[in-house]
Amino acid sequence: MGQFKNITRLYNVAYKSIFTFTGKLSYDRVTDCLIKLANEIMETDTDESLWGIAEFDEAGLDGLVIGAYWHFTQWHAGMSSKGYRALCELGRVYSPGMETGPETETREHCVYVMLEEMAEEQYGKGE
Q: Does the predicted TM-score (pTM) go above 0.70?
């Protein structure tokens, strides 16, 4: 996993801020981190082992990317917003096809819910 050092680092920063009390990033900064994470994934020569990063965490890299993608489908303020940029960058990594959102009681749904709670805390209901 050494070849994925930057991806792992960005994942850990986002994970801690979303799932733990020790995370230091606000919702807005987590959004920046997720944009950087998606870009790093796209710019790094990867293989299937990439998706094993943090596979035993509440989210794992795959759950984080997918849950965040679905979160930003609901939480953006139009095409010029940071949330929409996050949606687009995450969409380069994850393409849902005919899916309609994360299924409940999945890692992806857990990320979706936690990001929603962070967004509501910062902005209130609906961005």
A: yes
